[in-house]
Amino acid sequence: MEAVLPGFVGRLLAQSRDPSHIPDITVLAASDWLSPLASRVLHLLDTGTYRATESFLAHGYAYLPLKTPEECTVYLRVSDTRALTFWPVHAPTAVLNMAGTTVMEMYREPDDEQEGRPQYARTLGAGEFFAAHPGTLCATGGTVSTVQVLATSEPVTDREGLLSGEAYAAFTRRGRRYLEQASRTPVGAPC
Asked: Collapsing DSSP states into helix, strand and coil, what is residue 54?
C-alpha cells in the first residue's frame, strides 16, 4: 500500500520539544499536499477502511480511524462543535487542516487555559498544519466545515463516547463532501 500522509508528517512527529529543533520541511512540501492528501483519504473511504465501531467523539471532533501503511495512527477528524475545546496532547501529533477553519490556542499554565489567556493563538485555514507535543496545553475549535487529518504516534485514548452507526454515517458524509472539494481545490483557495 502506498503512503497516504505527506512525507513531512513523519518529521513533525519526530520533532523534539526543544524550540531550536525545527524540522527540515521544504516550502514545496509544506504547500502542495492538500489536494493529493484529500484524494488519497477519499480513496480510503471508498474502499471501506473506516470502521464505525472504532470511531468516537473527543475534544469537539468526531475521530474516524483511517487504515494507512504509516507507522503512526491516523484519523479523519470532523468538527462536532464550534466551541473552543481543551485538547490534552498525550503523544506527538500533527494536524493537517483539510477544510474549514481551525482556531488553536496554546497555554503556558493550566490557569492560563481556564482564564482564556493563551501564550500563542492562531487561526488555520485549509492547507495549513501544526504539530503538538505531549504535555502541551492546547485548545482547538472549528467551523461546521472543519475537516482535519490527525496523525499521532499513539492512538487517542481519552474518548467521550463511541459513535452510533447513524452518527458515523453523518460525519463520514460531511467529511467526504469537504474532502471532495479539497481534492479539486488549489492550495490557498477557500474550501
From this structure: helix
131: β partners: 94
What pLDDT score does 113 carry?
82
For residues 141-158, b (16+ Cβ closer than 10 Å) or e, as one string? bbeebbbbbbbbbeebee
**134, pLDDT greater than 60:** yes
Phi-psi region of 90 (alpha: psi -120 to 50; beta: other; left: phi over 0): alpha
Half-sphere exposure of 68 (CA within 13 A, CB side): 23
Is there a contact between 99 and 76 (Cβ–Cβ < 8 Å)? no
pLDDT at 64 over 70: yes
Distances (CA, A) of 40 to 53, 69, 152: 22, 12, 18
Q: Helices marked H in the chain — which ranges?
A: 8-14, 27-31, 34-46, 110-114, 165-183
